[in-house]
Specification:
This protein is an alpha/beta fold. It has helices at about 10-30, 35-70, 95-105, 110-120, 130-135, 140-155, 175-195, 210-215, 215-220, 230-240, 250-255, 270-285, 300-310, 320-335; strands at about 75-80, 165-170, 200-205, 225-230, 290-295, 315.
């Protein structure tokens, strides 16, 4: 969604202002003189205005996207995962594109180059992404939440049944989930008050971090549903990078170390134990907790059979896998 058409530019504008905006709060506190503090506060006000201005530009794009989804899915639950990728993925990496970004946003090319280098992460899949973005920049998830709820209320007003489910990715601790969730609920209350209307909604989380599966009973106190993100859960549990393991995983399968590529077929005796444990612990806290799986494992027959056996409610996968997923779910139910 964020790369489509012109919307990539306010995303980049937001990123350009984001770190300055966040770091300046620390600088204000650390200022030694009143003059120094005043100067930093002035810079902070400019960065904050740019950051929030970029989010305001993104809001109508997001709201329009969600309206379309809710109309198409009227009467069915719609789970929307909030921003998950690390911010560096939205920035241009080559010199020519960086110069274009600098021209469009009215800054020097060196500023863009410095921002790209600043946001570089050695292992971005384990870095500043998912709910960690919301901890640092709460306004991002607030904007997305506002877009979801405003869109839902508009489609509901048109006479359609809308069932929004907001999913917070990459949670590892209940305190992390609560912090982000409280912000989201605060924004929802604001929208309800402004629009003088209400709608039912759920707030849940993706279980992708092993710690989340191990403490699922705690996390369930704050979550209305779980969705196991088994791509990342496999990476973190097995210590394999999905992007790099192709260089050697073939040998592991050929030599019988693993029966299959764990990114293609769920590793039931390792990763699966965490999935089963997380499901049981979550439902120990909330008996009717809605639990599912999302990612490519959600469209693979053996993995779907496993999901059925551990008592999941749903699987989610890419569109081309849906026919296979339906057939496999039916076969699992028959068995």
């Amino acid at each position: 969604m964020f790369f489509e058409g012109e919307r990539i530019w306010p995303v980049r504008q937001m990123i350009l202002a984001a770190d300055d905006y966040a770091l300046m709060l620390e600088k204000i506190d650390a200022a030694e003189t009143a003059k120094e503090k005043k100067a930093i506060q002035k810079e902070y006000a400019v960065a904050k205005k740019q950051f929030e201005g970029a989010l305001k530009k993104l809001l109508p794009y997001q709201r329009s996207d969600f309206e379309g989804i809710f109309k198409a899915m009227a009467g069915l639950p719609v789970t929307i995962r909030l921003l998950d990728p690390p911010l560096h993925e939205f920035l241009p990496q080559d010199k020519k594109s960086q110069a274009e970004m600098a021209r469009r946003l009215g800054v020097k090319p060196a500023v863009v180059k410095a921002k790209v280098e600043q946001l570089h992460e050695f292992n971005p899949m384990l870095g500043h992404r998912g709910c960690r973005l919301a901890v640092t920049y709460p306004a991002i998830y607030r904007m997305q939440t506002r877009a979801i709820i405003e869109a839902a209320l508009k489609v509901k007003k048109a006479g359609k049944v809308v069932l929004p489910e907001i999913m917070i990715p990459l949670v590892g601790a209940v305190s992390e989930l609560k912090l982000v969730k409280d912000d989201i609920i605060d924004e929802i209350k604001m929208v309800f008050k402004e629009k003088k209307a209400r709608i039912k909604y759920l707030i849940g989380t993706m279980i992708e971090v092993p710690r989340a599966a191990l403490t699922a009973d705690e996390i369930a106190t704050e979550a209305d549903f779980f969705s196991f993100g088994t791509n990342d859960l496999t990476q973190m549990t097995m210590g394999f990078s999905r992007d790099d393991a192709g260089k050697f995983l073939g040998e592991y399968v050929a030599k019988g170390i693993y029966a299959a590529d764990p990114f293609q077929i769920l590793d039931q005796t390792g990763v699966g134990i965490l999935v089963e444990m997380g499901t049981k612990l979550g439902r120990k806290t909330k008996k009717k907790l809605k639990v599912g799986i999302c990612g490519e494992h959600g469209g693979e027959p053996n993995s779907i059979d496993f999901c059925h056996r551990v008592g999941m409610d749903y699987v989610s996968c890419s569109p081309f896998r849906v026919p296979i997923a339906r057939l496999s779910a039916a076969q699992a139910a028959v068995r």
